[in-house]
């Protein structure tokens, strides 16, 4: 006779204590601690390309751009997560009692993978929308040239656009930056599969 393993729920404080001492990153979702998988070379290339353009375009402006390792706290959903790319207006607003976890992103971009695509498009986007400062969400497919853009027009109203041509220009609505898809996908080899 086998017994079901009991699920352990952690407080946010317990998670943070474990996380700062861990060699790998974990998400925290309402008491559950979930290990984050590593990315593919193309995932990292796309994230790096997008970060580089943003970081250069926003120099000497009141924004900070973060890639991969900056923790975000979403209090309304009790989630700690690590978005692929975040733009945050300064000054940075931190989770109470922390100096390593921010709460005020303006724009978030996620590079989609097979295992996270549905979560990023649905539950994660719903969680991000509970953040008062959040204005724009970019979803970048790593397997084919395709970018989806959502930006906030009014309370509860989001505008959707999509781009699939290398000469398409993604014009961000939350910050002054535009980027060609061919620059986002520079050095990405679509023939290599995950």
From TrEMBL:
Matching Pfam families: Uma2 (PF05685)
Annotated SUPFAM superfamilies: Restriction endonuclease-like (SSF52980)
Keywords, alphabetical: Endonuclease, Hydrolase, Nuclease
Claim: Metal-binding is one of the keywords in the record: no
Putative restriction endonuclease domain residues: 13-172
Chain coiled-coil ranges: none
Record-linked InterPro entries: Nuclease_put_TT1808, Restrct_endonuc-II-like, Uma2
Domain of life (superkingdom): Bacteria
A GO term, aspect molecular function: endonuclease activity
Listed name of the protein: Uma2 family endonuclease
Organism: Anabaena lutea FACHB-196
């Amino acid at each position: 006779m086998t017994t079901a393993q009991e699920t352990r729920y952690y407080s946010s404080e317990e998670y943070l204590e474990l996380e700062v001492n861990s060699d790998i990153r974990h998400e925290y979702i309402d008491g559950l601690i979930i290990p984050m998988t590593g990315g593919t070379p193309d995932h990292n290339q796309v994230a790096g390309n997008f970060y580089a353009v943003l970081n250069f375009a926003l120099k000497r402006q009141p924004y900070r751009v973060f890639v991969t390792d900056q923790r975000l706290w979403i209090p309304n959903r009790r989630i700690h997560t690590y978005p692929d790319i975040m733009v945050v207006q300064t000054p940075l607003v931190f989770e109470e009692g922390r100096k390593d976890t921010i709460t005020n992103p303006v724009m978030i971009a996620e590079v989609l993978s097979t295992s996270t695509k549905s979560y990023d498009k649905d539950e994660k986007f719903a969680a991000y929308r509970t953040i008062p400062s959040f204005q724009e969400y970019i979803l970048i497919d790593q397997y084919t040239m395709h970018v989806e853009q959502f930006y906030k027009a009014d309370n509860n109203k989001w505008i959707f656009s999509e781009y699939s041509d290398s000469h398409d220009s993604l014009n961000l609505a939350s910050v002054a930056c535009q980027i060609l898809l061919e620059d986002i996908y520079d050095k990405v080899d679509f023939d290599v599969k995950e």
